[in-house]
Specification:
rod-shaped, 3 helices
Length: about 140
C-alpha cells in the first residue's frame, strides 16, 4: 500500500469536488495589474486635486486683483444715480466671475473624479473577465 502525501490527498479531494486548478503566476499577475491600476488612479486623483488647488488659487488672486481695480476705479460722484449704475456694474461683474469660477471648479472636480474612477472601473472589468476566463479554462482542462 503506497502512502499519499498530504498535498496529493488535498489535490485529489479538490479534483473530486470539481474545484478548478489555480494558476498562481496568473493570479499574481492579475493582482499586480490591479495594484498598478490603483496606483494610476491615485496619480490621476492627485493631479486632479493639484489642478483644483491651482484653479482656486488663481480664482482668489484674480478676485483680489479685480476687487482692487474696482475700488481704485470707483470714484464717487455727487450723482446717486451714476453711483448706483457703477455699483450695479461692479456687482454684475463680480457675480459673473463667481458663476464662471464655480463652473470651472465643478468641471475640474468632475473630470478628476471621473478619470480616476474610470481607471479602477476598467481594471475591475478586465479583472473579472480574466477571472472568468481562468475559471472556464480550468474547468475545460479537467474534461
Amino acid at each position: 500500500m503506497a502512502t499519499q502525501s498530504f498535498l496529493d490527498m488535498i489535490e485529489e479531494f479538490g479534483t473530486g469536488l470539481g474545484v478548478p486548478k489555480v494558476d498562481v503566476d496568473k493570479l499574481i499577475e492579475v493582482h499586480r495589474r490591479n495594484i498598478d491600476a490603483l496606483g494610476r488612479s491615485a496619480q490621476v486623483a492627485t493631479e486632479g486635486a493639484k489642478s483644483l488647488a491651482d484653479k482656486q488659487r488663481d480664482i482668489i488672486e484674480t478676485a483680489f486683483r479685480e476687487t482692487s481695480a474696482m475700488v481704485r476705479d470707483f470714484k464717487p460722484t455727487g450723482n446717486p444715480q451714476e453711483m448706483l449704475v457703477k455699483q450695479t456694474e461692479f456687482a454684475k461683474k463680480a457675480f459673473d466671475m463667481t458663476l464662471q469660477n464655480t463652473r470651472d471648479v465643478a468641471e475640474l472636480a468632475m473630470k478628476a473624479t471621473s478619470d480616476a474612477t474610470a481607471i479602477v472601473r476598467d481594471r475591475l472589468r478586465e479583472s473579472l473577465s480574466e477571472l472568468r476566463n481562468s475559471v472556464s479554462a480550468g474547468s475545460e482542462m479537467k474534461k
